[in-house]
Design a protein that fits this description.
Layout (H helix, E strand, L loop, with lengths): L5 H13 L29 H14 L3 H24 L4
Length: 92
């Protein structure tokens, strides 16, 4: 699988380490994004089962839950922007 974005690349790298396909020296630094020094705390209500799945996955991959969510939201925004641009076409 070829990662489409930073989120997929990060999760793929962590999975390769956990499953023993590579060792801890493999570069799995999560991508840093310039937050311009300003951040807000985002909240979302999710089903308990979704939180349990996320906790289990983050534990298996040795990924901080906060980092997973940050990268997942960024990937979702990038994908939504691409979809919107493709639907919009060159009209703007």
């Amino acid at each position: 699988m070829t990662p489409k974005n930073a989120f997929q690349g990060y999760i793929q790298a962590k999975s390769l380490i956990v499953e023993g396909y590579t060792d801890e020296t493999f570069d799995v630094t999560s991508p840093d994004h310039d937050f311009d020094g300003q951040v807000i705390n985002m909240c979302a209500r999710v089903p308990v089962s979704m939180d349990e799945r996320l906790n289990a996955l983050c534990s298996r991959l040795d990924v901080k839950k906060r980092r997973f969510i940050e990268l997942a939201v960024l990937a979702a925004i990038e994908e939504a922007e691409q979809i919107h641009v493709s639907v919009r076409g060159d009209s703007e």
